[in-house]
Structure formats: C-alpha cells, structure tokens
Amino acid sequence: SGTAFARQMDSIRRYYPAAAQTEAMHVNYYYDTPDGALNQENITLRIRQKEQTLAGKVKWHHGQQKPEQGGFISSEYSFICECLPQIIDYEGKLAVLQGVLITKRSSFLIVPGVKMDFDRNYYWGICDYEVEIEFDDNKGSIAADLVKRFGLSMPSPKSKSARFFETKQTMDLCMQIGAR
C-alpha cells in the first residue's frame, strides 16, 4: 500500500540520514509486437524519457533469483533515440508503441555500489509501488541486510513491464467484451 511504502522510505531516511537522495520522473514508452511476442519471451523494449532526453533499452529478464538476496537477474542493452518512434524493428520483429508507464522515483545511495529506488508507477489507471535494490556483485551482503533490517518483502514475481502488459491485456479484453 502507499502508506507502507511511505513508511519504508521514511525509515531509510532516518536510518541513513547521510545517504544522497535524488528524485526523478521517468516516462516509459513500452513496445511489443501486436501478438505480444517480446513480453512472452521476457523481453522488455522501452524508450525512457527524462526531461528532453530519450534513451532506448532492451532488457532480458532471466527470471533467476539471486538466492542470498531473493532478487532477479536481468541483462540490458541501451540504444540512442533522437525521436519517439511508433514502430521499432527489433531483430526482424516489428514492435509497436503499446502505451506509457510513468515512474516517480526516489533514489538513495546507501553506500557506493548500493542504491535503493522507491518507485511509484502509474499506468492504465493504476498506481503500484516497488522498492528495488541495485548493487554491485561484491555488495550482496549489504543488500541482504537492507531487506532483513527494513522488512522488505520479496520482489514481485512480475517485472514492471510485465505488470504493465498484463493490465493492458485485461483492458483490451474488457474493451472487446464491451464492444459486443
């Protein structure tokens, strides 16, 4: 819930008062083939807008947990965008702009190599909350301690993009039923 999310963020602020904090707004434009092939293959294709800058990213969600932290592993590839396209050719597949997810992110640099992101995600009339811990390979014990110390729940088994596309699929189905 939003209240629990705010409490967790306040706890981090109190426990790590010297942690550098930044605020950012991300506008994420998600792409997929009309039949949802990329999402089905656990591939996210998105363009993120920060102010006037557009940056593309392909993310492969491996689904493997890091056993000691309970997290997930993904690989990423970034690309430059000069404009927002309606269609992207990804490895011979035509990916079409599917919609927008807006993230309000509060980031805390706990120590060098360990960052906590508190995300409020807005899409399809929904607001969800997510806490992510990004850390260097040699900082896993610090990340595990953060999870334990602050009672953070295990990550959602679904990525942000998977939740976005699942909700879109439900809305598309409802529109089809309503059109009958």
Radius of gyration: 17 Å
Count of β-strands: 8
Q: Number of helix segments?
A: 4
Please describe the biggest sheet, giving its number of strands, its sense, and whether it closes into a barrel. 8 strands, antiparallel
Shape: globular
The average pLDDT value, as a whole number, equals 89
Ends apart, CA distance between termini: 35 Å
Layout of SSEs?
Layout: H1 2-15, E1 20-32, H2 37-40, E2 43-50, E3 53-66, E4 71-80, E5 87-90, E6 93-111, E7 114-123, E8 126-135, H3 140-149, H4 160-179
Antiparallel strand pairs: 1-2, 1-6, 2-3, 3-4, 5-6, 6-7, 7-8
Q: Could you write a compact summary of the structure shown?
A:
With 180 residues, the protein is of the alpha+beta class.
